[in-house]
Every structure is written in C-alpha cells, then in structure tokens.
Amino acid sequence: MKKILILTFILSSFNVFSQGTDCDIVTDPTLEGKLCVNDSLTLRPNKFYDPSKYSFEWQPGGETTQQIVVKPTETTDYSLNIVDKTTSNVECNSSILIEIAAPIDLTLESIQKTCAFIGSFEETGVDESQPQYNNAILKVNTDNITDYTFTWFYKAGKNYKNLNDYDDKLHLDGPNGGSGVIRAFALSGKRDFAVKITKGDDMCEIKYAKTEILDIPKPKIIADPEEHVYRENPIARFKYENENADTPIDVWLWKFESEDNNIKDNTTREELNPQFIFSSLGKKTIQLFARATNGCDTTATLDYEVKPVNLKVPKYVIQGKKWEITPDNGGSNGGNNGGNNNNNTQSSFKTDENGDEIKDLNRYYERCKVRIFTRWGKVVYETSDYKNDWTASEIKPGVYFYIIECTGFTMDNTLKGSVTVFKR
Questions:
Q1: Using an 8 Å Cβ cutoff, are 308 and 230 in contact?
Q2: What is the CA radius of gyration of the chain?
Q3: Please, which residues have CB within 8 angstroms of residue 206's CB and are 6 or more apart in sequence?
Q4: Which of 109, 138, 169, 367 is most buried, judged by most C-beta within 10 A?
Q5: Which DSSP state fits 215?
Q6: Tens digits of per-residue pLDDT, 271-283?
C-alpha cells in the first residue's frame, strides 16, 4: 500500500513541474535591450489563459490579472505564476528581467505657446503660410543634437501614439522628426507630448510636457439693420462684441464680399464700426478678422443680403387707426394694390421692447414725402418724412387721393392712388 502511495505522489509531482515549464512572459511593445527611464510596458504570458479556469499572481506587486502594466524605476525581475483553479496544478511559472537604461540629464520645455483652435488633432493639417504663433514649440534643451536620437509621441486617449504616423499633420523639425524640437499645430486645448531620448545602447529616457494654449478672441458681428437691407436704402452699420473678454482685440479688419463678385462690394475697411453702402442686390458675406493682444487671431462671419422692396399702400383707413405703408412681401409689382392695413401680411419691420412693430419707412428709403388731398385738390395732410402715423382723425370720411414721393439712396419711387377714410 505504501509503494502505491509513494508512486502516486512522485507522478503527481512530476506532472506539476512538467506542465509549469511551457510558457514565457512577453512584453508589449516588444522590448529590445533596456527599458527607458519613465517608460512603461505591458507584461503578459505568451498565450491566452481563460481567467475563469486559471488564477494569476505576479511578483513583485502581487497583481492577479493575466497582464500587467509596469513602470519600473530600477532593474527588476518579474515573475508570473499561473495555477489551474480545478486541480491546483501550476500551469506556468516564468520570469523576465527588465533592465533600466541610464537616465539622461536633459529637460523638455515649452518655449512657444500656441493659439487655441477649433478642430481635432487628427483632422487638422498645417498651413505653412500661417504665422509662427499658430504653432506650439517644445524643445529638448541640448545643443548637441547629433549625440542623441529623438522619437516624438502625442497622447490620444490613455495611450501615446508615435508622431511619425501623423507627420502630414504636424511640422517636425529635422528628418523624420529626429531633432530635439517639435512644432505642433494649434490645438483646441493643452496637449500631452512625450519624447524618447536615446544615446547609444545604455542611455535612454522619456520626457513629458504639455503644449501651452493661448485663448483666441471670439468676436460676434452685429449688423444694423439685422440680416438685410434694401436696395433703395442699402446702408448698414457693423460692429462686434467680443464674447471672450479675457482676450481683448487690438487689430481688426472688415471684409465685405458679394456673391456676384461685384467689385464695388468686395472691399475692406479698417474702422472699428464701419458703415457700408452696398451697391448691388443679393447675398453678401461679412467677415471680420480679429487679432488679440496675445497674438492669436480668428475670423468671424455673418451672412447678409440686399433685397428689393415694393411698397404696399392700404386702400382704406379707419379713423383713429394708422395708415401704414408696408413692404409688399408678396412681391406684387403694383405697389399700391394692397388692401387694409389690418391684414395679416408678413412684416419685416423690427419690434420694440414691448413687441410692437416699429414701422419706419426710413429703413427702405431715406425719406418719403406724403400728400393727401381731396378730389378738388385741397391738401388735407402733408409731411416731408412720413412715419406711418397718419390716422385721418382731422378729416371727414370719404375718398381722398395721395401722392407718395420716396427718395432712395440708389433710386426714387413715386406712388399715386386713392384711399377711403371710414368712420370709426
């Protein structure tokens, strides 16, 4: 009986040690030579083990996952023990020596800030014609560049990616980014960079730094009138509000562009709040180039339009109500064929603080002279600059006639017709 038990023990022990030899620890990425100071790598077995069937123990540290990330500060011998949870047999027992290279006494510094930029790092290319302040510069402080090899990385999510994969998106000084300087295109926030510096086979260190970001100004263009003007009075004034008060603007340039490439409309202005007279109908693009005191610039745009206008004159007025001449948004050419001033025709007038429409004809013409007279030619109302305020309260109900003479910046218009006054 004793012989059988002893034999069983020997066979069992042989089984444990024989199964524990068929594995190795591998590194990701593959480590060739010594590990750089401040670098990290992943350790794992050379094949997959189902965590539901096996347990793991790493030393030093005692981690119990199948793979671990290590960042040793000195040469370290790591070991892995994998045990079958059902049989308690050791499935793998392996070790690996990670040697640390000698450190390099250099620093990575930010020597030029960059302006903030709207857009992602991968989607944005470099415009070499842009001023230098659009690029952040990081530099390793050494004059002996030829003594070292430099490999640059940037952080994407939790990982660092090699910048050589994106050399069309960045400007790298030196062949293949091999110098101690990197110029990274303007980004929308602070960006983490790293550089691997090596010297020979025994010296290697990774340095980390962030690009420093300057705020850009955020001008918002404000037009008066808003959205559009009319051909007969095509004058608009423009200004801006900087929504980023911490970045004051000290240089600006306005540009007025016409969709039809009208030469008169395509011009620039340097005034702070320019007044512009449009010379043609159609859609326009207003641009404002603004540069802040920190050197960062941006361009704001506003879509604008110059429209034609046909006035719509009411055929009757109720005493006490205003006789309001409005634009004919339906596009009729008659001008004086409109109906009651109390209809629901869409208006393009502004509103005051109470929500009431400000029906000022000066938006369309410089001024409109209005004369109302009887069939015998007697003038009962006259003004050289009509403000849509006649109520016919001072005359008797009946049929009257009008002549409206509007003077515009580019053209004049005269309307004639009749208006019936009704008692309220």
A1: yes
A2: 40
A3: 36, 37, 38, 39, 194, 195, 196, 197
A4: 138
A5: P
A6: 999 999 888 888 8
CA atoms of 375 and 394, how far apart (whole Å): 17
C-alpha span between 213 and 295 (Å, rounded): 12
Residues facing 229 on adjacent strands: 306
Residue 9 reports pLDDT greater than 50: no
Q: List the structure tokens of 272.
A: 């702070």
Q: How far apart are CA 221 and CA 306, in angstroms?
A: 17
Average pLDDT over residues 126-153: 67
E strand spans, 211-248: 213-214, 219-224, 228-230, 235-242
List beta partners, residue 411: none
Nearest to 139 by CA among 201, 212, 202, 71: 212
| Rounded CA separation 187/185 (Å) | 6
Count of other CB atoms within 10 angstroms of residue 91? 21
**Residue 44 pairs with which residues in a beta bridge?**
26
Residue 136 near residue 112 (C-beta atoms within 8 A): yes
201, 171 Cβ separation under 8 angstroms: no
The closest alpha carbon to 212, from 231, 237, 192, 229, belongs to: 192
Q: Residues 205-215: what's their mean pLDDT?
A: 83
* Contact assessment for residue 406 and residue 383, using Cβ atoms and an 8 Å cutoff: no
Tokens of 299: 């361009």
Burial string for 8-37 (b: 16+ CB within 10 Å, else e) reads eeeeeeeebeebbeebebbbeeeeeebbbb
